[in-house]
Design goal:
Rossmann fold; 16 helices; 33% helix; alpha/beta; six-stranded parallel β-sheet; Alpha-Beta Plaits
Length: 454
């Protein structure tokens, strides 16, 4: 697949590296030679120096022959990405995607308008990050959650704590203590341990600190929480450190469903803007939230959740650790340096948000067969969750799952069929038009995709 990326900023560079690793032909356009040089040190991609809105630059990158054109030009207005996308579409690019920074563009009416103009998808990374944060607070017992079919199935990530009854149990022992009803409600599908993600076997033993992935029906969550020793605790009061775009969107969403949200923001002018835009139950406090004494004075002990969204990864991680020490039960940190994610999780932060990984999941599905509904990278692992709609006659429908030569580093987790949902097992027979949730290590994605081609 030929892919042209306009923009060699953080997101563009991450996409270039990821997509090139999948054996795609990747070309990156950017006007900044330093960004292109930096990209060239760790990604084997072709580059074109020039403006992404220049027709000559687009032609130099051969954008007209691109199977996928991605406009993610950094530090600029969204019009640059929109114009470059429209030009690429007119030149002949088959699928075109653009990064935006205006929530209004994401309305159904506006998305349809731009789709008719040739832009297949518009994405706003900050809005996606805000949505993930809000979702994580609704599933407060788990570290990461992906809902399928409006919550009929959920893939969740749990950390095994010291007091978890699962410590030192083998998988076969765990299955034996489950009731027959529970085996139909949830299933353990993977474990992330010491930077490795594995599909567990019957003799695999659970250890303290393991990150365990489960698939469950909605009614199975209480059983999972019982075994992991983590009860769902309602979140009623939230403190947000950082009043940028993500903080504003999170606060607006939470304010409609909880009594108090407090934003700590050190820029006075930004505080004034937030005060005008947000509802009355969002308190805007001007101050330095990286000062633990200041947070104490602002009553951090009385809050159920603390969300750190400053421009500093280090500050976000550190202040979440401080919040935990003050007794806050739920912490969320934005961490943009991918190398820091594992460290943040090891330091006890409940949820880590990374815009690059969120964006990568939205875009990666466009490199698959066309039957993939979405892709999500799960925190704490090198695994991905993919939802497919099964095409009639595709290979995955030819026999029960146990008789298919499915990749060993992937597992069919669950199936949604009409109004029904169920946990997949070896005897499960996939049918045409089923919606199937797949848990897979990254290197097996292309092989999995073959099973869903008609």
């Amino acid at each position: 697949m030929k892919i042209v990326i306009a923009g060699a900023g953080e997101i563009g560079s991450h996409l270039a590296k990821m997509l090139r690793a999948e054996a795609n032909e990747v070309v990156v356009i950017d006007s900044d030679s330093r960004r292109l040089a930096s990209l060239g040190t760790y990604a084997d991609v072709a580059t074109v120096q020039g403006s992404p809105t220049s027709v000559s630059s687009l032609r130099d990158a051969d954008a007209g022959r691109a199977d996928l054109f991605i406009a993610v030009f950094p530090y600029t207005t969204q019009e640059v990405n929109i114009v470059s996308s429209l030009l690429a579409s007119q030149l002949g690019a088959k699928k075109v995607i653009a990064r935006i920074n205006d929530e209004d563009y994401l309305t159904a009416e506006n998305r349809l308008l731009f789709k008719e103009l040739g832009i297949e998808l518009m994405f706003y990374p900050e809005k996606s990050a805000a949505d993930e944060i809000v979702t994580s607070l609704h599933h407060a017992a788990s570290s990461d959650t992906m809902d399928f079919a409006h919550g009929k199935l959920q893939i969740s990530l749990f950390k095994i704590d010291e007091d978890s009854p699962m410590v030192d149990l083998r998988l076969e022992e765990f299955i034996r203590i489950m009731s027959p009803e529970e085996t139909s409600l949830f299933r353990i599908i993977a474990i992330s341990r010491e930077n490795l993600t594995l599909i567990p076997k019957f003799d695999t033993k659970f250890r303290f600190g393991d990150l365990v992935f489960t698939v469950s029906k909605r009614e199975g969550m209480k059983s999972i929480e019982k075994y992991f020793g983590r009860a769902e605790k309602p979140v009623g009061k939230v403190m947000i450190l950082g009043g940028g775009a993500i903080g504003e969107m999170v606060a607006r969403s939470l304010a409609s469903r909880m009594p108090l949200v407090k934003i700590i923001e050190k820029d006075k002018e930004r505080c004034a803007v937030l005060s005008e835009r947000l509802p009355g139950n969002v308190l805007i406090i001007n101050g330095d939230g990286s000062n633990s004494d200041f947070l104490y004075e602002e009553g951090i002990r009385d809050y159920d959740a603390f969300i750190a969204l400053t421009d500093s990864d280090e500050s976000n991680v550190l202040m979440c650790v401080v919040a935990k020490k003050f007794g806050v039960s739920r912490t969320v940190a934005e961490v943009e340096n991918i190398e820091y994610i594992k460290l943040a999780e090891e330091m006890g932060i409940d949820t880590v948000i990374n815009k690059k990984l969120i964006t990568a999941g939205k875009i990666f599905k466009f490199t698959l067969s066309g039957k993939a509904r979405f892709v999500k990278y799960m925190s704490g692992s090198d695994a991905e969750i993919i939802e497919y709609t099964v095409a009639p006659g595709s290979a995955v429908t030819k026999a029960p799952l146990k008789e298919l030569s499915f990749p060993k580093d992937a597992i069919v987790a669950g199936v949604v069929r009409g109004s029904d949902s169920f946990i997949a097992v070896g005897d499960t027979q996939i049918e045409d038009y089923d919606r199937v949730a797949i848990f897979a290590l990254s290197h097996s994605i292309k092989e999995i995709d073959k099973f869903f081609k008609s």
